[in-house]
Specification:
Number of helices: 15
Strand content: under 5%
Low-confidence stretches: none
Largest sheet: none
Order of helices and strands: HHHHHHHHHHHHHHH
Structural class: mainly alpha
Number of strands: 0
Shape: globular
Helix content: over 70%
Distance between the termini: 97 Å
Radius of gyration: 24 Å
Length: about 350
């Protein structure tokens, strides 16, 4: 005789996790960061002194100067990057691509360009994501000019650039770069939007149906987990660029004569700003890698406007990004995009060399 199966027991309910446990790893991380950062300068100064003594070089020589710059700036930039990238990774959990597209869809010229440029500051972007972002925006109904304002702002005026500029030069330079970058991004989008060269976009882009992503609600544990993932992915990705950028900056700091750099990138030469932009375009770097070079150039007498123009051209007009965008744009549109943005950057460089 078959006996009836016993009813399944309900799984025991897990007690709700206390809210403070979600915050604990983040608070410990941030709390440990500040004392380590304050200890960095004296620790690297002692290390530099010990190395120069062991190598038998003069503490006031070129090699000691370059070595001191390298040993201090690499951990300093990496630590600044580690803190800001974690914080922004948490903040970006509130700014999904779906929300960004929804905010910009159907926006008219003017207000849409301003909003797109502002969203570029807090929205994750890199050259590899240029194509899917471009496609997603256009298929969601975002106007072409508004899309270009975002494409200029996101790599050039991102949170990493602003945080590192603030940490290395102070709020005045950081706010100056923020205003200049937004101005260039808004103006470029307005100009391209007025021309409305939609016929220069590859036709297959407009044939892709719009898709709506499913937004998931996240608790603080998930947001902090995203921040730590963001920290791991971004820092590992850009660390080689930081080391290379600081290496170039250390060489400039230690070996390039001040009068040479003042002549090449100073206010006196009319051609210094366009030359800086032309030099920056073929370079492939990001803000984290180029800012140590900017610091060394300014220290050697380069003009502020010329140096900022150089930085903007590296981050907003990189040749590899143009190669990626070729998948969705015809060459004439890429040329138009580069010409408009370069003109704005050169104009900014001249203006600030004149008034600063």
């Amino acid at each position: 005789m078959n006996t009836p199966a016993a009813p399944a027991r309900p799984a025991p309910a897990h007690p709700a996790r206390p809210a403070w446990r979600a915050w604990l790893p983040a608070l410990l991380y941030v709390g440990a960061w500040f004392p380590l950062y304050w200890m960095l300068e004296p620790a690297t100064a002692r290390l530099t002194g010990a190395l120069t003594s062991a190598l038998g070089v003069s503490p006031s020589g070129h090699l000691a100067s370059a070595l001191g710059f390298l040993l201090f700036e690499v951990p300093k930039v990496l630590m600044l990057l580690a803190l800001i990238v974690f914080v922004v990774g948490v903040l970006q959990s509130f700014f999904t691509p779906e929300k960004t597209r929804a905010l910009l869809a159907g926006r008219r010229q003017g207000a849409g360009n301003v909003l797109a440029a502002a969203l570029g500051i807090v929205t994750p972007f890199c050259s590899c994501s240029a194509v899917p972002l471009f496609i997603g925006f256009l298929t969601a109904g975002v106007p072409l000019g508004v899309t270009f304002s975002f494409l200029v702002s996101a790599p050039m005026v991102n949170e990493v650039a602003l945080a590192l500029l603030y940490g290395m030069f102070g709020w005045r330079i950081a706010l100056l770069y923020l205003g200049l970058g937004l101005l260039v991004a808004i103006a470029a989008g307005l100009v391209i939007g007025r021309m409305n060269p939609v016929h220069l976009v590859e036709p297959w882009v407009y044939e892709i149906p719009a898709t709506a992503g499913i937004e998931q609600r996240m608790d603080w544990q998930a947001r902090f987990a995203q921040g730590f993932r963001h920290l791991r992915d971004i820092v590992l990705k850009v660390a080689p660029y930081i080391v290379a950028g600081v290496g170039v900056g250390a060489w400039i700091h230690g070996y390039v004569p001040q009068d040479f750099m003042a002549h090449l990138m100073g206010k006196g030469a009319w051609w210094s700003v366009p030359l800086a932009v032309l030099i920056g375009v073929p370079m492939y770097s990001n803000a984290a890698g180029i800012i140590p070079v900017v610091q060394a150039l300014l220290g050697k007498g380069a003009a502020l406007g010329t140096t900022l123009a150089f930085m903007m051209s590296v981050t907003a007009l990189s040749a590899p990004e143009f190669l990626i965008l070729r998948k969705v744009m015809k060459p004439r549109l890429i040329t138009l995009f580069a010409a408009v943005v370069a003109t704005g950057i050169v104009a900014v460089g001249y203006v600030f060399n004149a008034v600063m």
